[in-house]
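Example 9 (inverse folding). The structure is encoded as follows.
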């Protein structure tokens, strides 16, 4: 989906009050991968620090990823009924939503895009609409950027800069707090 369409899509998605719709909104707001959202557990969420820490074992690059939670993402989490177990629980107790849940929301809405494609929407927006350095935008997506020497010297994860970027993305998306 072109990034210019994301705000109106999210407004339309807001009409659906299902857990799967909230999971999709959370995924978009955080430029997350489907599996990252679906397997998110409340133990990973620090509401006071506005931080979601995804363990390395669940990351594609096998490296812990800290996600700064924007005001819209925090507001979404505040609406959820539980603070234990899966953030987005499925039908079976203690189990997360199915990996098809968000895809089915899109199908029912008649929108022919993929959940993963919203990461591209975010990246295009960051590249075209902000002055965010490439490395920061890529770090928001948990992408590894640079050659081996560069990576050996870059130890930080640009969290403060990514926090600003994700707040701007949430504002752009038009999600009201």
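The amino acid assigned to each position is listed next.
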């Amino acid at each position: 989906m072109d990034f210019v369409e994301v705000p109106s899509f999210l407004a339309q998605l807001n009409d659906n009050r299902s857990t799967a719709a909230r999971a999709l909104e959370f995924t978009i707001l955080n430029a997350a991968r489907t599996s990252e959202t679906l397997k998110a557990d409340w133990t990973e969420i620090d509401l006071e620090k506005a931080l979601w820490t995804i363990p390395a074992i669940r990351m594609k690059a096998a490296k812990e990823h800290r996600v700064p939670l924007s005001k819209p993402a925090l507001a979404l989490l505040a609406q959820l009924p539980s603070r234990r177990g899966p953030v987005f629980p499925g039908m079976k107790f203690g189990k997360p939503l199915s990996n098809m849940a968000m895809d089915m929301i899109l199908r029912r809405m008649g929108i022919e895009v993929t959940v993963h494609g919203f990461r591209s929407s975010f990246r295009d927006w960051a590249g075209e609409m902000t002055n965010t350095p490439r490395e920061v935008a890529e770090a928001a997506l948990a992408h590894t950027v640079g050659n081996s020497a560069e990576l050996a010297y870059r130890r930080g994860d640009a969290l403060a800069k990514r926090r600003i970027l994700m707040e701007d993305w949430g504002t752009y998306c038009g999600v009201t707090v």
